[in-house]
Each structure stands twice: as structure tokens, then as C-alpha cells.
Amino acid sequence: FDYQTKDLIKNAMKKTTQLVELFRHQSERLGQMKPNATKSILAHFKRLSGPLENSLINDLEILRNLSAKEDSEEIQKLNDIAQNIIHTSQNPKNCQKANKLHCSMKHTSCGFGCIVHMYEICMFVAVGEARSMQYDLNQLIAYPGINATFKYPSDTCVNRTNFAKSLEKMQLHRKMKLSPSPLTEHLAVTHASWIPDKLLPRIKRVHTPSAWWTGQVVSYIVRLQKQVKSKLKKAKEKIKFAHPIAGIHVRRRDKIGEAYFLDLERYMDHVESWYDQYMLQHPEERVIRRVYLATDDAELVKSANTKYPEYQFITYVSDYMLNVVNRNSDSAINGILFDTFLLKECDFVVVTFSSNIGRLVYQLRQTLPMDPSFNTISLDDRHSYCGEKGQHHVAIMDHNPPSFIKCNDTQHRSNTKVMRSWTCELELKIGDKIQKIPFLHHEYLTGGYNRRTFLHGLYPAHKAKDILIPAPYPTFGL
């Protein structure tokens, strides 16, 4: 298929997903209403619409898979190029003369996923500036053992000399120190979601460009050391991790206060649909409905087995889940790490992008030889990137919502939890530039700030498209 045909298929799948989510959301609202007659109508609707949805998505999957082999070969080539670019930037031939970026992070209240994303920001600058990134994970005294978990960014240049004399730039909870030369203007253009200009024409044909590049950088940061890989392999064997398998990440304890509580049923609704679609594609296969359940709540595991006896739930039981240790302990870090990497390997995952771990899983899945956009579901936010300068949409269709739901007095943002419950819709005119807001998102309706009307609100996702921003990353002739 040519680029236009592939793009049409991808857009058709996106719109189908949005339509499914619209039905799902409205069904939930109907289910909460009275009288009981409503529930009867809803049950009838779901009984008939569910198989139809799955059949439609299955047809589109078959159509998309016609070009999958060709696409996967190109994606793997681009993955290799990206990793070579990052590796070359971090392994100068002369360490003494090489420019360096010293990344110092002392934010001890930050969770595991948050830490990875903090260092990710430094790495974007380091790669864009061709600087060898230097850090010392032993600074993270709240996370004993983390220094022995990941490979160091460079094999040829581990040199923290002149750290105190380096140029210092504060960002969030990190200090970025650069030596020996000062920072150039590249800092303004090597942000998450901005794609190397020489790779953009190729990657946009087969993938979601901004998510792909972010995933490449993050994957380089969390390359596991040999002994950790061995532990992960043994853990997989112990819990009998096998395919096909869906994965869900249900965070409970430290999630309270950050986002709305979501019942297990919300996750399993998607898992059930995915397995129904899988069986349509594999009618002769005896399918075991496996689910990798990543959670910090031991009671949820018991509840899942009780509510869904037809599913085989697989869980890595960490000491943190059993309340033996706190989330910063060596054992707890292993548990979170293994959950993250096992979710990455699942065939289909349901997460929340309000969670750093949920976003990290999606980012790591970018290095697979396929675009994971259609087999990764977020139950709340749109995917976003730590440290990004903002993602933008351009309106490709007008949108004129009725007056009773039109945004009128939303010039200013409210707190995150309040904005997640907003329902007002923005007026759009073709060509409007919209700054996207990650937590103002309902799949079929996404949200942002319209720079023409100066209002915040929701709008139909299919009426706008991403603005892709190329950045002058060095590619070292690769």
C-alpha cells in the first residue's frame, strides 16, 4: 500500500476505536440511570453491538495486516538506526575532549516511573547535543540497588570530572550540568515528541512518530544489566508467562488523589473484547484467556479470580504487594521493574496514562516491530511525555457544538481532577491550532486550548490531526 492508503486504514481504525469508546461511555451513563427498563434496553444493545464491534475491528485488523510484514521490516530498520544514533552520541572516541551532560536528580519523592522520565529529559538533550550523559544513580538514596539495575549510558566515557565547574541549568527536580562547551540552541528543539528530521519522512509512513522516538530514548535508558535480565527470565518461567496474553496495570495505593478510581470491570471489558477478536482470527486455536495482572493490591488479585473464573490471572507477587516493604525498597523496585517489562511483552495491554508506569509501558512497546497504538488502551489520559514543550493539533474540520454544551467561560485551567470531569466542547474552524492537554481526554473526545478562541475544552478527536515537529538531531551519517 502507498502512504495515503495506509493512512486511511490507520484513521479508519482510530475512528472505529473512538466509536466503540463513545458507545461504551454512553452505555455506562445509561446503566447508572433509573428505572430498570433502561437496564433492559442497555443489555439488549450491548448483546447485539458487542459482536458487531469486534467483527468490524477484526475486518480492519485483517486489512491492516496485509501490509504488516512490509511495515515491520521497515520499523525494525528504523529501530536499529535510532538505537545506533543514541549509542553513537553516548560513546565518543575521545572521552577527555568530548562534550558531556551531567544529570543530577535528587527528587526522592519520585516513584520508579517518574525517575525514568526525569532522566529521559536529560537524555533528549544529551542526544540532541551529542553529549555523553553522566549520572550517578547512587544519588537516589531512596532506591537502594537501582545503580546495579541499568546499564550506564556510555561504554567509552564515564567521566564526572569538572562537574562543579560545568554550566548549570535547573529543570524541574534535576540539575543538568554541561561541560566543557556551553549549551547551544539545540536545547530548544530536542524535546520529547519532536522527531529527528532525517527520520520523520520514513517513520510517519509506518508508525506514530512522536511516541516512537520517545520510546527509543526511554528504552536506551532502561537497558537492563545481565544479572537483572537473568532474574526477569526466571520470574517469567516461575509464573508461566505465555502467549497469547493480555496485560492490565491497576495501581491502587499511591494512585489515590492523582486520578479517579477505576473498577476492575473497566479494564476487563477491553480484555474481553480483545480475546473475542483474537478468537475470530484464530478459530481453530484452543485459547487460554491469560491476563498478566500488574498491581500493588493483593486483594484485587483475589477479587479478579473470583469475578472472572474463565480467565487465568498471572501475577508477579512482590514484597511490596504483600505489605512487607515500602515502594522504595530493592525488592519493590524489582517488582515494579518486572511488571513494566512483562507488560511490555503482552499482546494487548490496558493501562492508565495518568500513571508514569502506564506511559512507560507504552513507550517501551515502541521498540517492538509494530505500531502498538491499537493494542495499548488507556482508560484515562492521552499519552504525554515528561518535559515536552506541548503537543499540538490542527483542526481539519469545523465543529459547532450546540449552545448548551459549548465552552464559554473556560479561559483558565482548573486543577487536573476537575478538568478530567469537564464535558463542554470547543468551537473549531479548519486551521485552528490547539495545544493538547493530556488529562482532558475521553478517547472519542480529546481536549486542549484553542489559540484562536482562547478557550479550553473538548472536541471530537477525528476533527483534528497531530502537528509533527522535526528537530535537527545529529544522525552521524547513519
UniProtKB/TrEMBL annotation:
Q: Which GO terms describe its molecular function?
A: alpha-(1->6)-fucosyltransferase activity
Q: Which GO terms describe its biological process?
A: protein N-linked glycosylation
Q: What is the protein name given in its UniProt record?
A: GT23 domain-containing protein
Q: Which domain of life is it from?
A: Eukaryota
The residue ranges of the GT23 domain are 97-379
Q: Which of UniProt's keywords are assigned here?
A: Glycosyltransferase, Transferase
Family to which this protein belongs: Belongs to the glycosyltransferase 23 family.
The protein's organism comes out as: Ciona savignyi (Pacific transparent sea squirt)
For this protein, the record's InterPro entries field holds:
Fut8_N_cat, GT23_dom
Report if keyword Glycosyltransferase is assigned.
Answer: yes
Important for donor substrate binding as annotated region, ranges: 251-252
